[in-house]
Every structure is written in structure tokens, then in C-alpha cells.
Design a protein that fits this description.
With about 70 residues, the protein is mainly beta. It has a domain of about 40 residues. The protein is about 0% helix and about 25% strand. The protein contains no helices and five strands. The termini are close together.
């Protein structure tokens, strides 16, 4: 069986993503993993992503097909 990425699986549709209303909901925080440190910020923070970004952690990352198990 060939696996294909679900084109609708993006940060915007992910249960782990929290949109930032101050950025018109186009940017937000990914809360899938624990916060990490970044060079420009001394405190641990969740990664900032754009609503159109994607990764393999999205619950619906693999496209579901009719009749598939």
C-alpha cells in the first residue's frame, strides 16, 4: 500500500496547534512536544509555526482512503 500525505493536514488543522490571535491566527505555537530553548530567548518556548506548515506528527498526516484499514 502506498502512503500519501493528506494535503489538509497542516498546523492550522492540528489538535496540537494553538493559533496566536495577535498574528491574525496565521502563526501559532506547536504544543506537540515539550518547550525548547532558542538562542534568542533564554526561557523555554513552544516552536512558532505558520498555519500552512506541516509535519509528520499531525493525527491525520496519512491520507485516509475509502476501504483502507
Amino acid at each position: 500500500m502506498t502512503k500519501k500525505r493528506n494535503e489538509d493536514a497542516s498546523c492550522e488543522t492540528c489538535i496540537y496547534w494553538e493559533a496566536d490571535p495577535g498574528k491574525n491566527n496565521y502563526e501559532g505555537k506547536c504544543r506537540r512536544q515539550t518547550p525548547t530553548t532558542e538562542p534568542e530567548c533564554p526561557a523555554a518556548v513552544w516552536p512558532t509555526t505558520s498555519h500552512y506548515n506541516w509535519c509528520g506528527e499531525h493525527p491525520d498526516f496519512i491520507e485516509k482512503r475509502a476501504g483502507a484499514l
